[in-house]
From TrEMBL:
Coiled coil: none annotated. The keyword DNA damage does not apply. Pathway: Cofactor biosynthesis; thiamine diphosphate biosynthesis. This is Thiamine-phosphate pyrophosphorylase. SUPFAM superfamilies: Thiamin phosphate synthase. It comes from Octadecabacter ascidiaceicola. InterPro entries: Aldolase_TIM, ThiamineP_synth_sf, ThiamineP_synth_TenI. Keywords: Thiamine biosynthesis.
Length: 211
């Protein structure tokens, strides 16, 4: 993802986050339809299950879909599953606390990103420790998490001062996408897509707002 940094700002890319629960018999086809409809920079496997076997099976199934389309696949938190299942990296949820250890475990080629919520300090620390990208969010109104929003000013500052790519995620809307587009590198889309009747069409509509 760091290869996408250039001097002139480009249109943000899509960072597609899976639902926390899905049917393995059908979801890979739904994901494939999305990837065939709209260009996606990265997919994050974000199952809420604690069943290692289920997560591993999902990782294998989604890897076939994403890698066939030359799209990177990272997994939430489960560092030990990255190498055995041929994944491209991991997305951490602890800001900067474990990046150094995870980088040592996975090596220089792995993608390592981390959720820094709404903390500029944690984002800068994560970059110093070797994160390939950081995410801020939620950017929209939601009762989930600690309810602290990542505001527009944070993304404006980041885009002006920091070269490491940033993902905007959490309760996104068309208006928020239009507002944040000049200041973010990726939009992390999840329920905004999956909770609609036609995820591929919805993704295309959301992508059209990225300018």
């Amino acid at each position: 993802m760091t290869d996408d940094i250039i001097e002139e700002k480009q249109t943000p890319q899509i960072y597609l986050i899976t639902p926390s629960e899905f049917e393995l018999s059908t979801y890979p086809d739904v994901l494939a339809a999305c990837l065939d409809k709209v260009e996606v920079g990265c997919v994050r496997l974000s199952l809420g299950s604690k069943d290692e076997f289920r997560i591993a099976k999902a990782a294998d199934a989604l890897r076939e879909v994403t890698h066939a389309r030359d799209v990177a696949l990272v997994i939430d938190s489960h560092v030990m599953l990255v190498e055995p299942h041929g994944l491209d990296g991991v997305h951490l949820d602890d800001a900067a606390r474990t990046i150094k250890t995870v980088r040592k475990d996975l090596g220089d080629d792995a993608i390592i990103g981390t959720n820094c919520y709404a903390s500029r300090h944690n984002g800068m620390t994560a970059c110093e420790l070797g994160a390939d990208y950081i995410s801020f969010g939620p950017v929209g109104d939601t009762a989930l998490g600690n309810s602290e929003k990542a505001e527009l000013e944070l993304f404006q500052w980041w885009s002006e001062m920091i070269e490491v790519p940033v993902v905007a995620e959490g309760a996104l809307s068309l208006d928020l996408i239009r507002t944040l587009s000049p200041h973010t590198d990726f939009f992390g889309l999840s329920d905004e897509v999956w909770k609609t009747e036609n995820p591929a069409e919805t993704l295309a509509i959301l992508a059209s707002a990225m300018v």
